[in-house]
Amino acid sequence: MSQDDNYTPPKIWTADKENGGKFASTNAPTAGARHEQTLPKGDAPLQLYSLNTPNGVKVNILLEELAECGVTDAAYDAYKIDITEGDQFGSDFVDINPNSKIPALVDYSTDEPVTLFESGAILLYLAEKYGKFVPTGQGQARADCLSWVMWQMGAAPYLGGGFGHFYAYAPEPMEYPINRYTMETKRQLDVLDKHLANNEYMCGNGEDSYNIADMIIWSWYGQLVLGKLYDDAATFLQADSYTHVQRWAKAIAKRPAVQRAVDLSLTAIK
Questions:
Q1: Where do the segments described as Disordered lie (predicted)?
Q2: Quick check: 229 pLDDT over 70?
């Protein structure tokens, strides 16, 4: 597949050829289950179905931070959903997440099981359920946390599906999309750098300020500037120049819960 300088979009798009790239074998313009599947279930109250990608690591971090705090009610079993093999399109997983993306979680500690998908929703649910890592009272502290959580949810697709895809996964280098998404990724890093110049964590100073906003943003942007995503992307983006993001990212990377979360052992589902 090569980039066609003379390409003109048709009046009506059709999926009449493979789109190329790393995930071409699983891409399709339709939703829903593609095969029958029975997901395993352990004995812990929380059942996590995920992968250790940035989106998956977010939830890993919170669960491990809760364990670090001694919250035994947040015990969980973690299972691997291999998105390169199409596990996300199995019938049981689609029942939990109709959008077929990781992570997904089921809480069996309630009278009726609660199913959750979307990392931001999972983090908010768990943080509020256990009263940790999210400000609970109305006011600026809670507003700041929710604002930065939603910032990540809106911003990261430009980093992952935009920059990451065209820089690392597209079938061939394409100058325009790489330039377009590099520009936006660097703008986002500058947003974070300017904010963290006056804040130890995303929502203020001191250990009590560390919360789900840090966890959800670090999983993408912290790992990016530390050279953990997309091969040489940190060099390409001049990540070392974002000194305040670097300081914040390195501090969080030293946390025992974060170290466990990044390398979390996931049990195969088959």
A1: 1-38
A2: yes
